[in-house]
Specification:
126 residues; 0% strand; mainly alpha; single chain; 4 helices
Length: 126
């Protein structure tokens, strides 16, 4: 326990000693690196174009969502997805899977949980 405490204190002291030195370092301008006014104008024009395209993308995404582009899930469906995901991950983990295999189990379990809760009723079932 003392070793861990000593390691933490030493790392904090080393970090505190390095911070003032890094704060004082400044990059000196190198000849040939200064941007001309024309280059700055071109960069600003590129930035403005990107902003315009992002705004259009956001507008089209909002329009798509507002016109029923994506169906919303009910609380029961969210619960079924969550329970299925946790169950799938636990089952795969209990069978010896780990890492990506457990994530795949969670995805399959979530899909299965949503499928079970969203399935239409079977004919003749009470």
């Amino acid at each position: 326990m003392k070793v861990i405490r000593l390691a933490i204190i030493a790392s904090v002291l080393l970090l505190m000693a390095a911070l003032p030195a890094s704060a004082q370092q400044q990059s000196a301008p190198v000849a040939g690196d200064s941007a001309t006014q024309e280059q700055l104008n071109q960069m600003q024009a590129s930035i403005d174009e990107i902003r315009k395209q992002l705004k259009q993308l956001g507008t089209s995404a909002r329009s798509w969502m507002n016109h029923g582009g994506m169906t919303s899930l009910t609380p029961e469906q969210w619960t079924a997805i969550a329970v299925g995901a946790v169950s799938g991950a636990l089952i795969v983990d209990a069978l010896g899977g780990g890492g990506l295999v457990s994530l795949a189990g969670a995805a399959i379990g979530g899909y299965t949980g949503h499928w079970i809760i969203s399935a239409p009723p079977v004919q003749g079932a009470k």
